[in-house]
Each structure stands twice: as structure tokens, then as C-alpha cells.
Amino acid sequence: MSLLQGRVGLVTGAGAENGIGFAACRSLAAAGAQVVVTDLVRDLADEMRLQARAAELSTAGSDAIASALDVTDTEQVRACIDGVVDRFGRLDILFNNAGYAGGVGPFLDIADEQFNLGWQVNVMGAVNVCRAVIPVMKARGGGAIVNNSSVAGIGAIPGLAGYSASKFALIGLTKVLAAEFGDDNIRVNAVCPGMVWTDMGREEVELFRKAGQHIDQARSDMAREVPLQRRWADPREIGDAVVYLASDLATYVTGIALPVAGGLAPGL
Ligand SMILES: NC(=O)c1ccc[n+]([C@@H]2O[C@H](COP(=O)([O-])OP(=O)(O)OC[C@H]3O[C@@H](n4cnc5c(N)ncnc54)[C@H](O)[C@@H]3O)[C@@H](O)[C@H]2O)c1
Fold first, then answer.
1. What is the pTM of this model?
2. Hey, what domains does the chain have and what are their CATH numbers?
């Protein structure tokens, strides 16, 4: 059975080959969905990278397209969603994955600009895309939105004040939209990954690495905090949770923040 046959899904921040966004695209495509792979496009290299991602999915049998999408640019958001509707006539699944690891480091040293950038991408980015997508979903009788928060959005990790504040806010947004659009059969949930081995995961290791410590050692030290097998997540494991929340296996699930973190539970 193809869980998402006939559905169209869009993923933001999906240009990196080893990122959670593209892993989710692969999982959605494997479940039968047509996929719109989007990310920031600042130059020709970004454009080619994004086209290559979509081509990979097409080769594997999905009807996938690539589209430039800076989630902080409301004009581009509008143009992208209009393009999807023109192409497919529908949009059933939105994974708000784009994220910026801003506002990290010792709290007293974090610049306002970093707090603001984290807020603009992680919160307002989801707001912007939801504002464009929800009317499309309403018109088609429903849809599923999944927001990518973090375990840093449900518990305290010292050193992540700005990032964490934005990811808590994203869960707040998730819950309010779930309550507000339940009558429209639009389900809105969040996933909360723990440690996932991606470019951002590597940045996190760099942040917490002790002076002189090899990155591989720092990486395995951090993994000791994870109850399940003391390991980092593969991005696919987050993508598969997105498929579950987007699918008819979860028709009565809305407003939740699902940890996908191998049992990792930050304090407070
Ligand atoms: N890696 C982890 O351990 C981890 C843990 C919890 C949550 N997350 C979340 O997962 C998501 C994906 O992160 P990742 O680990 O795959 O790292 P990543 O760096 O590969 O992905 C982040 C993506 O967001 C995109 N992006 C940044 N600003 C954007 C903008 N203005 N518009 C559109 N796209 C933009 C980047 O281009 C990039 O493709 C993020 O929201 C991150 O906060 C990651």
C-alpha cells in the first residue's frame, strides 16, 4: 500500500543532500507522494543543487519538481505556492523544515541580530508558508502540516537560548493552527528531532566540542546522552515520522509535538 499515493507534498529547506529536508522528500516520495523540493537559491550552484535533488527523486519514480523558496520572502513564497497549484492543482502536505541555528552560544554573548535571524527563519518562515498554503488546503477539503521543531523546543539546553526560544515558539504556532483549522480538516503537528547527523548537527558538535577535542570524539560523547543505542539519528528517521504524521495513519492526530529523538530528553 502506498500511504501517500496521489498526494502532493512540499518541503522547505530541502536542498542539502544529507539534510533532514531532503530525507523527508525521499520518504514522502517512497510513500507515493509527488514532491516539491524547495530551498534558498542564492546562485547558480544552489539552483543546480536543487535541480539535482528533484532529478534524483524523479529517477526513483516520483513526479518531483524543484522550486526556489526563501521562506522569509513573502513574494517568493506566494510565487512558489501559485506555481505548485498551477502544476499539480493541489497541495496536501507541507513540511516546514527550513531552519537556522541562530542565537547559540553563551546567552550574554548572543547578538540581537542572531535572535532575530532565528526568529525570522524558524518562526516567521513557517508563518509565511502556512499563510500561503492553508487557503489551498482549505479549498481542497484538508491537508497535513508538519513543522520541524527540536528537542530544544520542548526542553532546556544551555547554550541554545535564541534557537530554543524560536523552536518553542514554533510548537506554540503548531498548536494554535491545529486548534484554528481543525474544522477545515487541516492537521498541524510538529516533529522534535534530537541529534541528527547533518550539516547543522555538525555545527552543534563544533559548538559543544571542548578545546583540542577531535570532532569524532565530541560526536560520540554527545551520543552517550541518547538512551536508544547511544547514537545520532539518520535523517531518514525524521523523514519517516513526517510521513506518518502526514498520512492517513494519523487522521486523528493534531496539535502534537512528537519527539523523534531516541529518548533524548533535555532538562527542565
Ligand atoms: N540536525 C539536528 O540535529 C537537528 C535537530 C533538531 C532539529 N533540527 C531542525 O531540522 C531542520 C533541518 O536541519 P538540518 O539538520 O537538516 O540542517 P541543514 O543545514 O541541512 O538544513 C537547514 C536548511 O534550511 C535552509 N534554510 C535556511 N534559511 C532558509 C530560508 N530563509 N529559506 C529557506 N530555507 C532556508 C538551508 O538552506 C538548509 O537547507 C532545521 O529546522 C533544524 O532546526 C535539526
1. 0.98
2. 8-194+234-259 (3.40.50.720), 198-232 (no CATH)
